[in-house]
Amino acid sequence: MTQQLLLGTTLAFEGNPLITAWEDCAKIDTHGAVLIDSGQIAAVGDRTQLRAAHPQADIVNYGDDLITAGFVDAHMHYPQTAMIASWGKQLIDWLNTYTFPEEARFADPAYAAEIAWRTCDLALSHGTTTLTSFCTIHPASVDAFFEAAAARGMAVVAGKTCMDRNAPAALVDTAQSAYDDSKALLQKWHGVGRANYAITPRFSPTSTPDQLAALGALWTEHPDCLMQTHLSEQHDEIAWVRDLFPTARDYLDTYEAYGLLGAKGLYGHAIHLEPREIDRLSELGAGVVHCPTSNTFIGSGLFDTLGLAARGLRTGLATDTGGGSSFSMLHTMAAAYEIGQLRGVALHPAQLMWKATEGSAAALHMSGQIGHLGVGSAADITVLNLASTPAIAQRHARAVDVWDALFPTIMMGDDRAIRDVWVGGARQ
Ligand code: GUN
Ligand code: ZN
Asked: What pTM does this model have?
């Protein structure tokens, strides 16, 4: 099989810059190269040496562009693609007004396929090579998503969203059907190609204790799967959970009590956490996912990136489309930076890029497989033009180093900054 040698400035990580000095973790090589062989990264290093060692490789010269691991979106809702940027509501009203009516449309498998294909195309055009998605309650919505991702060779994580209360009649399943459908989908898709199944109760308010217990039992039967849900996003939601589960110690306990707390749990938002919740997530090394454009757009609050990372939690980064207001992980990093500033912390570009690649991969328990510019990883690669618009170019022109050259693209870039994308070694 042909080898490709990509030339450019490379950005790779050898550690977690949220808990170790970023200077010791981030490796920039302005004379870098990445060798792709059989869909995987076979070498990352100096371009002169790699050219000499692999004279037969096809050369793709990206000049000064930045070669990074492809972005990994650790939490989103592909069924909400067409209703992104819907005005004027906070979480519960937003779900009832916009989200549930849109998700009801996914009873039509043709509509599900249309939106799944559109979402995967939008992701790739924004440099995102892995999506982690909630689907709808309809099993065909899960098939549609995995099929669309497989057609593009994308590694994805997804599952049937389960809800058996507090949702419109057209959108509820039962404890038993949620178990049966999830199990059948898991057996059909998990580990097939690059598909990974995640057991997916939407959140405690829309699942009865019976449904949570049924999904907890399913997770016990399939502990290699991820389990994704939402946790402590807004104060009204937390108060509602308290009413619905009066004996629970806190929000996390509504999952813990039913077997839905574990290291392979992925808890979206996790903003307003109680000390006990942080302790438990920390003990388990569970994953929490920061969704910054969503957290400002829906008015949820300020995620504590450094505090939670210091406690040993895996912290992914995500668009949360369509509660989030962008398909771009660049915008998402910008929003994470702004939320950091509101907490008195200036996250370094290395920390932001790590969150969008390695950090999300770690939250998904896929470290070294995706989100990683290193030998043995899938060749899921994004190439960034750091002067993609006149506004960015004029700021880029006075950059004093590579980080200063990258930061304007993080803050102001969009899909125009995506020079190229490779998925499993295939150029898109
Ligand atoms: N909580 C429960 N469902 C959702 C959803 O679809 N989006 C967001 N942002 N939060 C949720
Ligand atoms: Zn969500």
From this structure: 0.98
